[in-house]
Amino acid sequence: MAGGILVALGGNALHRSGGDNSWNEARERMRAVVPNLVAILRGGDELVLTHGNGPQVGLSLRQNELADREVPRRPLDVLGAETQGQIGYLIQTEMGSALRRARIECSVLTVISRMEVAPRDPAFRHPSKPVGRFYSEEEARLFRKQFGWTMSFDAPRHGWRRLVPSPRPVRWLEGPAVRTLLAGLNERWVPVVAGGGGIPVVRRAGGAYEGVEAVIDKDLGAALVARELDLPTLAIVTDVPGAAVSFGRPGERWLGQITLEELERHHSRGEFSSGSMGPKVEAGLEFLRAGGRRFVITDIPSLPRALKGDAGTRVLAT
């Protein structure tokens, strides 16, 4: 895919802070997103999509709790699969409508994607990724005893969160099939893959794969997909127009076009928070070091202009 672009949408692309978390809200949000994706296709580039699923998994976990007395709980890997299908369906529906209006012949196909992780990844010994809602101290004690959950107190929000492992993805199991389809199909199509970073699975004795209670960083998952498909551009969409140094402090400066070396220098100085921009920058650095040519960070309204070099943070490998 010489002109291919992977766009990684955040899970918050479907839900806004303070929203009602309804399906109607998700549909309206996606309708606002897809014109910017269609603009990429109209420009002649090939497009691959990934997406986050944090808010959606949080809702599913809450549904698990509320229905616990009547319906058995689903494990976290299953919820990841469910939200991949749910969000993929939404993207297919809304992009399909937008493509028809734009008279662009193109199909959108969701591929439920698994990511292999190492069984001995240190993350399994040190769960660090908060999931689900905030709990009271009494609930935290109960769930720690009942389910063996790792719980952490969030002082600013006066609540407890469940922590789960976040191992590094090492292989995208559906990657070879998607590569074959992209190379062999005569029609144009947009794959929607590795939602939420992909479903974490480990390889057991005998070669069978088994899902694990963990989550994969969606940006690291996107970087792996982009590498396995030999895409030259990785664009991570967030809720700000780009990356900044001294963010929120005197001297704040938004970054435009910079080199890989400049991004590495800013990252090594601790400019990017581990709770927000840091994982995105780390994924971009991984992608570029592995042979990617361009890494972009921006928001949805700025995405088409950022890909043309007129907005966002753009990092070139050379």
Keywords, separated by commas or semicolons:
alpha/beta, six-stranded mixed beta sheet, 37% helix, 318 residues, single chain, Carbamate kinase, four-stranded mixed beta sheet, 24% strand, 9 helices
Question: Can you put this structure into words, describing what you see?
Answer:
- The model has no long low-confidence stretch (mean pLDDT 93).
- This protein starts with a strand and ends with a strand.
- Strand 13 (244-245) and strand 14 form a beta hairpin.
- The chain has one domain: 3-Layer(aba) Sandwich (Carbamate kinase).
- The strands form five sheets. A six-stranded mixed β-sheet has the order 2-1-12-16-17-15, with helices on both faces. The chain has a four-stranded mixed β-sheet with strand order 8-4-10-11.
- Helix content is 37%, strand content 24%.
- The protein has nine helices and 17 strands.
- The chain is an alpha/beta fold and 318 residues long.
- Helix 1 (23-42) crosses helix 3 (76-101) and helix 7 packs across helix 8.
Summarize the structure.
This protein is of the alpha/beta class. The chain contains 9 helices and 17 strands.
CATH uppermost class: Alpha Beta
- Count of extended strands: 17
**Class per helix and strand makeup:** alpha/beta
User: Please, how many domains?
Assistant: 1
N/C terminus separation: 20 Å
Q: How would you name the CATH homologous superfamily?
A: Acetylglutamate kinase-like
Largest sheet: 6 strands, mixed
Which architecture would the CATH scheme give at its second level? 3-Layer(aba) Sandwich
Mind sketching the topology for me?
Layout: E1 5-9, H1 23-42, E2 47-51, H2 54-66, H3 76-101, E3 107-111, E4 114-117, E5 129-135, H4 137-147, E6 150-154, E7 159-164, E8 169-172, H5 175-184, E9 189-193, E10 199-203, E11 209-211, H6 218-228, E12 233-238, E13 244-245, E14 253-254, E15 257-259, H7 260-268, H8 277-289, E16 294-299, H9 303-307, E17 313-316
Parallel strand pairs: 1-2, 1-12, 3-9, 4-10, 12-16, 15-17
Antiparallel strand pairs: 4-8, 5-7, 6-7, 10-11, 13-14, 16-17
